[in-house]
């Protein structure tokens, strides 16, 4: 063998050794600590202990009690459970539901949930939307727009009895939901507050429940344009909702004055005593919407800071949280919103702020900015003036004068 050939063989052998030395070790199919999920994961340990030993802590962890949890699991279990394979066992439906509810209740990161339940982060990201959509499909009847005039009249009666405001079928409000900017879409979601957001419009009934939500509009759209394009405005103006005649929504200064949408007299003007009383009575009624959003944020702390998941997940996070809010408010109000949790108005001591305000930072929610809309119709102005006259005469309440000074 020539010296050249021998040199080539030596170089080839050295290269082969180098390749073998640098070759990455074969990745394991599943990490060892995750493989011990059935023995050491929270689902079969901490969660079971809380069910048996302290149901209050269980409810604090998931925002539902044991009975409610297993009601949901019974309804959605078959649709979210996958089959075991020869390579590995499928994640139990119970564990998936626990992770989804804890994510909404605490806003914990996928990494934290992964370590607690011993489920890979990528797996959580994959099944989360499926589980949330399944929950929403079970509870969506708790968040539907009333369809009959009698259903609307029940809400109207509730507003009049609780808030002394006649012909009101809801408190209307809107929020920017701060999100992580989707790659390549900076201009679409960048709003005038210099954050990235999508918009939630909502209507709240007399009992702090959402009757209508519209979520997903891009933050760059003007607030007026968002309202003009929402389905509720179209349905009201086309008279397709079976609303009683002369029914109105109450709102703050964020949206335009309409015959069906009552807002305060502009505070930039020097208001008369009668106008101040009207503003007080309207804001007193409208506060129910503020409280609904406050309770939502306090109970589902995913909204305490900007939501960092992908945009397609944000829509279902909001819808499912609102549906859970309504379900819990209607089926277990004493535990979901105990006495003192919501704002209360006392004739002697005035407004008593609810305890939800002590805990809810609302970092994901930002108010929609007030609009200086000067294109109100004469009919809308007339209806507002009629309410002003009513609140200062036949509809007056004993404490309203002291409330405005």
TrEMBL record:
Required cofactor(s): a divalent metal cation
Signal sequence extent: none
Protein source organism: Parnassius mnemosyne
Full protein name: DDE Tnp4 domain-containing protein
GO molecular function: hydrolase activity; metal ion binding; nuclease activity
Recorded family membership: Belongs to the HARBI1 family.
Gene Ontology annotations for the cellular component aspect, listed alphabetically: nucleus
Keywords, comma-separated and alphabetical: Hydrolase, Metal-binding, Nuclease, Nucleus
UniProt cross-references to InterPro entries, sorted A to Z: HARBI1-like, HARBI1_dom
